[in-house]
Amino acid sequence: MPRLWKFYYSMIYGILGHPVAHSLSPQMQSSAFDFYGIKHKFLRFDVQPKDLKNFIKKVRKEKIQGLAVTIPHKENIIEFLDEISEEAKSIGAVNTVYWEKDQLCGTNTDGSGFFEALIKNTEIQNKKEVAVFGAGGSSRAIVCYLKKNNFNVSIFNRNVNRAKDLANEFSVNFDIFDNFNSSRFDFLVNTTSVGMNEDKSIISKNQINGFEGVVFDIVFSPLITKLLKLAKENNNEIITGEKMLLHQGVKQFELWTGKKAPIEIMQNALIKNIS
Ligand code: ATR
Hints:
There is one protein chain. 39% of the residues lie in helices and 20% in strands. It is built from 11 helices and 12 strands. The longest helix has 16 residues, at 242-257. By secondary structure, it is α/β, with parallel strands linked by helices.
């Protein structure tokens, strides 16, 4: 990064990942910085795993103000930071880097962003039973937060050993998809990539039959995934995936700036850029 940028832009932020070309964080976060008239650049830092250590040195030297972190660095970045929040420790991954005085800190806003999206978009009172599809990184953040908020979680995953490991770690249930019975749940949450830019659903029309609760798909491209189409046909309440992206980003912006995030503006920026 040319040093000269420092003279033109007082604040440099960015999304760190590999790849990062399709991330919507730049559009979403820039809309919020622009709302406050904050002179900034929100860059895409495409960094390979082998270059992560040197990149973090650059962050310290150039005083890059904040980072959103995505695949494949969420776990590996931890060893290069000075402080890790309790939240990031329990999830075992960092999605946000920020400065506290001269300490480079990491936290995780994925789980809380998911939960904020859930409570802002549906009534959760008296609803406790959640089926989570998937046992990867996103599932880990979501399961951790649901468990912390006293939900009864059951994990279903194609690779059942992964489901078992995650379930044991957070003391929740797991099962195979063949045993999935939607009628016993209040919420279904898809954390797998199934449905992303494809007309596929993690569960079938038959499997959603009889379900009367809320379906949340964290896939946001397309906004109405095949799973959400099936849910609509089944008259279920649905929550679209950009809401989790939005709320994890809202928390990042507030950490970086100490200002209240302009949620509607950020949401519009997201929707405008989702194909
Ligand atoms: P992320 O960090 O986004 O959660 P991940 O850690 O790679 O990504 O996890 C991807 C999840 O999607 C996993 O639960 C994966 O299931 P497996 O553990 O069985 O691989 C799930 N997934 C991806 N493609 C799938 C498919 N075609 N059918 C079912 N599950 C799939």
